[in-house]
Amino acid sequence: MNRLSILVVGMLLAACDNSAIQSGVSRDEGLRYTGELRSFRETFITPPAIERVWQFKVLRMAPEGSLVSQGDPVVWFDPSEPRRRLQEQQSQLAQRQQSIQDKALQLDQTLQELRLNLAEAEMNRDKAQLKASINDPVMPEVERRIYQLDAQIAAEKVREIESSIEQQETSAAAEQTVDEAELVRLQARVASMSQGISQMSLTAPQDGILLYQSGFGGEKFAAGSDVYRALAVVSISDLNFIEVRVAVPERDLRAINLEEPVSLKIDSVDDRSWQGRVKSVSTVYRQQNSAVYADVVVEVVDPDPQVMRPGLKAQIRFEEIGQ
Asked: Which chain positions lie within coiled-coil regions (predicted)?
């Protein structure tokens, strides 16, 4: 073989070797990618829902990374502000209850007076009607007309008082409906705030490892932090359900199939590997540094809660590639 032939063969071998390195494919090692461990059974804990309380102050938190059991207290909030608001609501409730009682007493007194007036007016009407009904031939016509007019006035007075009683009862019924609705609303608010204050100490909803979450500025919450109601303060990750998300270049995705077996090694753990399977391959692509990637999620088949922690770096090897 002459020098030119040797040079051409060498260039071809180098090109093939370089192509294999760039694609991530190796006959001996298959595809390898790096990702982070995470739990796919993770519960996020937020402050309690207390009406008109939007910000909470953290008093203390259980140590991050500690293993907790369901029901263990993990976060304590300062109850001072919710208690102040509760006192305001309780005061409004007491005022509303007193107002309802005062209105009921006043209505009762008003109706009693009107009914007494009605009884007197009915008596006067009956007397006037009796006089107007006298048929005495010797009675002057003027006097008879006066009696008839008095009877009409007395009857009108009765109707006027009856109308006043009806208006008072109708108005009182409408006010009572409004007052009772407001009373129910205030009672519900007080009950809700009381329940919320009783939940100012949050407990773990499941077994797992406690992880602190971050606020808008990217800093993790700690004792003394102010937390908005919708934000998660901590999370509980179940270490028996671990997966790894890796970004795979588009050129390598065709070599990866669902349920495909993989092996996994954790960077901080020497001489040990675990088994996994391809759980999902994303159909959403993103571009980074002139390359196109998609996420592949690998579920660990034999997780070890004693070793595995969310955030640890892991090397994923797709076993069947290159075989």
From this structure: 83-136
